[in-house]
Amino acid sequence: MGKTNQKIIPHRYQVVPRTLCFITHSDDVLLLRGDPDKRIWPNLYNGVGGHVEPGEDVYAAALREIREETGLEVRDLRLRGVINIPVDEQSNTGILIFVFTATSATRDVRPSDEGAPEWVRLDHLPQLDLVEDLPTLLPRVLAMGAGDPPFFAHYRYDEQGRLTITFSGA
What we know:
By secondary structure, the chain is mostly beta strands. Helix content is about 15%, strand content about 40%. The protein is built from two helices and nine strands. Strands 1, 2, 3, 4, 5, 6, 7, 8 and 9 form a nine-stranded mixed sheet that branches.
């Protein structure tokens, strides 16, 4: 199949690929507290990640986002899951998030325009203002073993704007 056969078909579901990574060091996880002036999730804690750029695969995108947002060079980057989030029914578009874990040999992080990275003890997570899916997603991801297969999830919002998360697969 050549490049000319790789066409975007109008009205088919299309997604924007993104990465999301949870980095651990000992018993702590690195979360990014969103910059107060950030358009989405200001002052909320989330994992590290962002858009996949043209010309890069999701693995390379995850490593790049980690370096840009934290200054870290990580090891043991593993795909843990894929999340499909339909966003706009009118344009038939959504977001496809590739969720990773990684480990860091150091705690030396630096802030970026996205926010301030903070090492958080797992027992402190309930006291933090987390992005709305993290109370469900983060424990599941951090409990995964080295050989566990990736999960697959679908997010949707009901008529009242409440998030529903459905997991499938292993």
